[in-house]
Amino acid sequence: MGMKQVDKEFCIFSLIGMVSLAGFMILTQNISYYYTMNDMVVSSVYGGILGGIGGAIVFQNRASMGGTDIIAVILKKKTGGSIANYLFAMNIVVVFIGTRINGISIALYTLISMYISSEVMNRVMNGIERKKLLFVVTQKEREIADHIIREVGRGVTFLHAQGAYTGNERKVIYCIVTLRQLPKIKKLIEDKDPQAFISILDTSEVHGKGFKKSIV
Predict the structure, then answer these.
(1) pTM confidence score
(2) Most exposed residue of 6, 54, 56, 120, measured as fewest CB within 10 angstroms of its CB?
(3) ∠ CA 127-152-130, rounded to 5°
(4) Which domains does the chain carry?
């Protein structure tokens, strides 16, 4: 299903993720002999945090850990929702089925951990995916565009515009950058033209040349 609905690369990475997860669970199964955390609340909270961070990294790199993760990715592809939210919803069903084996107490602690994991995963993935869209109106559009391309390595597009008051035609710089690149580009623009008008907008999903291919 994953190969048909997503792609072959996703399935290969998911297989690696699934085998790795199983392998490391086997390797660490005896860690409780050396250290035990008896506080279930602390275990649930920090387990959820670490699981959410790990899951976000895995999904962001076009992989999964197998099982319901693949279904969550397919649902995101079809509906545009959140992978973390779909996972949480599906795992609630699994947990409540498991109450027959482990009891209600363990199930409730598990739900705490899963909810925290879902929230952390959403925040981490949104933070990783966030990009900034820049519109720059300047008298030195060619010079600034050349510096952005050469020094930052980002593509630049000129949009033809006209001032409503002056009627003057000019080129507006259109550019999408990462959060890490934003301060450098702002300083570059301000150094070249202190009078430049800069508009910066949030954009969460960017597809195409120069940006990592999305999981969907």
Answers:
(1) 0.64
(2) 54
(3) 15
(4) 8-126 (no CATH), 131-202 (3.30.70.120)
Helix 68-79 / helix 83-102 crossing angle, nearest 10 deg = 150
In tens, the pLDDT along 151-197 reads 888 888 899 988 887 888 888 999 888 877 888 888 888 888 888 88
The CB density around residue 118, as the number of other CB atoms within 10 Å, is 23
Structure tokens, 8: 């072959």
